[in-house]
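Why do we bother with holo predictions? Because pocket geometry can differ from the apo form. Keep that in mind while you read this record for pyridoxal-5'-phosphate.
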Amino acid sequence: MKAAEKYIKDKLAERLSAGLYRALKPESTLIDLCSNDYLGFARSSVLKDHINEELKCLPLVLNGSTGSRLLSGNLTYTEDIEQGIAAYHNAEAGLIFNSGYDANLGLFSSLPQRGDTIITDELIHASIIDGARLSHANRYTFRHNDLNSLKDKLKQAKGNCYVVIESVYSMDGDTPPIAEILALTERYNAALIVDEAHAVGLYKKGLVCELGLEDRIFARVVTFGKALGCHGAIVLGSDALRNYLINFARSFIYTTAASVHQIASVKMAYDLLRDADETISALKNNISLFHKKIKDCPYPLLKSDSAIQCVVLSSNELARKTAAHLQNTGLDVRAILSPTVPAGTERLRICLHSFNTADEINLLTNTLKQIGNA
Ligand SMILES: Cc1ncc(COP(=O)(O)O)c(C=O)c1O
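The structure, written out:
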């Protein structure tokens, strides 16, 4: 017991002295430039009212789901919504998981088998890495968005091969050449899986649908905790894939199902998304305004058309100091430090929203320019 306590304390002390200690903070009252609530759904009183009305109309609303989906926790209501969401994204079927992390863990730990191959972009999300680690498949990464590097790995692949990308990368905000990656995976008879966590919303149904590629993509993961302002996720694909996951995805099987409140929230958020053209335009306008105003800032900006915009400061200290300066100015901007991102690419990760005002964006860009030119 004492040895375990010592181990914990030593590890925490190590983190502290490296300046990488993580601690929970109370909710922020600053201007939101860091949350994933891109379209303001999480804070929408309209959505809240719609959810309450929906719950009032349901015949039986249990506070909890009472069990896993395979035991007492399944509802026809949930299955209908799953089907509705799949249809919205032009997919044959979908299976809801309790989070995006669970969805990726379940998908990548259950589908690829020993002797198969998983090839991921080097910037792929941790939930996909963790799922792939739990599989017994061979794992390779390819250089970020680099088709030649992907081709090299495809040549080495054995067994069934799964290539995994994000349509908007969570830490860089950029977009891969999806059509070219798809054509390459098809040439090597590999299946392409796309995580659309940060694309759905800005691209209403996701980037895969925007590009008209949905029929050729093996599976997509859509999370409900970002632009949809809720919680949970869905894996989209064929009916057979859905049935496979129900049978083999352990993060689906061995967990209590989401409550009806959570499912109703997702249903009403999708209804809001269907009519969100003006809100999406407001987000796009804010992205354009940010690009215009940041132009003469001395710090490099990663290329991104999404709500995620990264200003590269190239050291943990400068990134931390600049974020603190912005926070003191009233702007909630967070630093992303190494080793979360490679050393030398430490950055501010700015998330823009439909509800940010022009004044807020001006304050952000002017403050950054002042700091950079001081
Ligand atoms: C690309 C990507 N996939 C999956 C997840 C996990 O989703 P969730 O937050 O719903 O667990 C995230 C969230 O950080 C993400 O950025």
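The mean pLDDT is 96.
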